Amino acid sequence: MLSVLRIFVALLFLQHGLMKYFGFPANSPPNFTMFSLAGLAGAIEIVGSLLLLAGLYTRQAAFIMSGEMAVAYFMLRPQRGFFPLTNGGELESLYCFVFLYLVFAGPGPWSIDATRRRAAIA
Hints:
Strand content: under 5%
Radius of gyration: 15 Å
Largest sheet: none
Order of helices and strands: HHHHHH
Helix content: over 70%
Number of strands: 0
Oligomer: single chain
Number of helices: 6
Distance between the termini: 25 Å
Shape: globular
């Protein structure tokens, strides 16, 4: 189930980066530029999600993506209130802690990381 969680969350998170850069599956944000904070976030979302999806450098990618979500939460939400339910930050909070969980739990058995680890032991 750990691998299923990792793959599913990676596919969900990938949509955010694809939306920013390619306008798929939803329209790009207005005034989006590649060389901005939103552009950096989109790059992290695409590259990190693809790494997570494959299970390659999972812990490192998840750590960076968890940090991105923490920054997104604390930049956008506190001025709207303390609790994620009232300030609209539930998604950032959930992603942040799922990615943090993956940092410590690892990628699971269906991953390139696990395959490389098995090959190194053999």
